Amino acid sequence: MSNDNKNKAAESAAPASNFLRNIIDADLAGGKYQREGLPSVITRFPPEPNGYLHIGHAKSICLNFGLARDYEGRCHLRFDDTNPEKEDQEYVDTIIDSVQWLGFDWNRADGNHLYYASDYFDTFYAIAEYLIQAGHAYVDSQSAEDMAANRGDFSRPGVNSPYRDRPANESLDLFRRMKAGEFQGGEHIVRAKIDMASPNMNMRDPAIYRIRHAHHHRTGDKWCIYPMYDFAHPLEDAIEKITHSICTLEFQDHRPFYDWVIQRATEGGFFQQPVPQQYEFARLNLTYVVTSKRKLRQLVEQNIVSGWDDPRMPTIVGFRRRGYTPEAIQLFCERIGVSKADGWIDYSTIEGALRDDLDPKAPRATAVLRPLKLIIDNFPENEQIACSAPVHPHHPERGVREFTIGKELWIEAEDFMEEPVKGYFRLFPGNKVRLRYGYVVECTGFDKDANGNITAVHCEYFPDSKSGTPGSANYKVKGNLHWVNAADAVQAEVRLYDRLFTDATPDAGGKDFMTLLNPNSLEVIQAYVEPGMAKVEPDTRLQFERHGYFVTDRKDSVAGKPVFNRITTLKDSFGK
Ligand code: ATP
Ligand code: MG
Known about the structure:
Elements: H1 3-13, H2 19-29, E1 42-45, H3 55-70, E2 74-79, H4 89-101, E3 107-108, E4 111-112, E5 114-116, H5 121-133, E6 137-140, H6 144-149, H7 168-179, E7 189-192, E8 207-211, E9 225-227, H8 229-239, E10 244-248, H9 255-267, E11 277-281, H10 293-301, H11 316-322, H12 326-336, H13 347-358, E12 364-365, E13 367-368, E14 371-376, E15 385-390, E16 400-405, E17 408-412, E18 432-435, E19 440-448, E20 454-461, E21 479-481, E22 483-485, E23 490-497, E24 522-529, E25 541-544, E26 548-552, E27 563-568
Parallel strand pairs: 1-2, 2-5, 10-11, 12-25, 14-20, 18-21, 23-27
Antiparallel strand pairs: 3-4, 6-7, 7-8, 8-9, 13-24, 14-17, 15-16, 17-22, 18-19, 19-20, 23-24, 25-26, 26-27
Helix pairs in contact: 3-12, 8-9, 12-13
The structure holds adenosine-5'-triphosphate and magnesium ion.
Keywords: Aminoacyl-tRNA synthetase, ATP-binding, Cytoplasm, Ligase, Nucleotide-binding, Protein biosynthesis
Catalytic activity: tRNA(Gln) + L-glutamine + ATP = L-glutaminyl-tRNA(Gln) + AMP + diphosphate
GO biological process, one term: glutaminyl-tRNA aminoacylation
């Protein structure tokens, strides 16, 4: 096992402890969630199907599914589809696909744990009726303006609605008529009756049901009233018997209402102890990246990128098309850990995880990205001599790649200098270099066009210097260049991606991320690649020696006409 693999195995065998694991350990020790026929740890990932998942969601997915895996519990994938206007089946489909691609599964021996909040609409409704009957909720008929004004603010307590003490049976009648479609949106709303003077704004009689004459992508036109997120979410958790409901820090102030809802519903006989408990962790902020569905949508809709899966997008589908592996994203999420402290993760962390994952796996290949002709003047005309190179330098068992060398080759333009700078060991007149896996050559001259551009470099080769033959040991050179044979190289489109923003924190502190776009985030070039690349299938990851990791684009690449996306360079260049 290589060192890389050893580290990785160690990392996955003993996940780093964190505050959530400590809580779960204590709950397990105390027997808190011992229930007949149920695991003691049930988590959930609850996306709203109103956009594509991004790398921030990946943190939440890896956390929730990872805890379930490590504690032999289960994690539910649940669509929080209570807001019909913004939601769509397209998003349901991509979310399912992305979570599966990341390597997680909700379909287990004890059931298929894929859930939709919309399947619980009848239960939500019944609980709301119960709350009204028990005096814990009422129908408010104030205008939206009055309601906002009467809510108060952080320095001013709210004012009770004039409808707050209307009889329960009057509220119940209105609620039933709301459901029957007798009113327009905004005419009435159902509110929990808690405390308009609470220092926590979320406890000032929060809304629990509102009228929305909207078509739902799953329930159609059955409903014209929909539950509010803060009311529905705790009930979804309780219905599914979630144990640890993990969310991001901005929901900390919502926790008292989360507990209130579950407690009232439990008193009403809808649930039994032990009930779910909410815990908050710091969301992922990644430098050079925005993770907000709204902002990502803006990039798509204004054609800044080619779509949700543009390889520069921090969406899961974008990372996938860029060439990231699910293993790299999981490794990244493990390395960043979870805490309650907000902060920024440097982009080099996710690239580091990617390199650590790909280095031992990715086959090697040669690509010349900025081609310059190299002519071996003393090479036999029309002769192609067979050469080979290992598929992977540390895995000889993976075999060799075959290609040829001939009189005319392509080398990188930057591997030749007419007048070398100090410390330059590549080609310049009079210098010798090795053509990797081929011969040692000595540079003899070059051609220039009328504009002074170098159009070809000339050299002579040493026939007894071929790599892998005894004679090669007699040649000591400092430069070792990659190349492809003009006679058998394949031309290919290569897309060189760079960060999408010029600013490390493009949407922090009120900055307008749309003004901080990197105009050079994509460069498309025509390159030459070694002949074996002609038949490579879409979605194949490899390392072009000296250049970095690349993937054949899953949409635009076809065998015979490959298109390569650069996933990342070989070394970190982000800090520079
Ligand atoms: P956005 O803020 O991009 O609109 P969201 O929070 O509205 O995302 P949801 O579909 O509600 O998207 O999120 C599903 C889950 O993913 C939630 O539990 C949420 O806490 C979590 N999540 C969203 N963004 C991040 C992030 N940046 N880091 C960690 N978890 C996140
Ligand atoms: Mg949200």
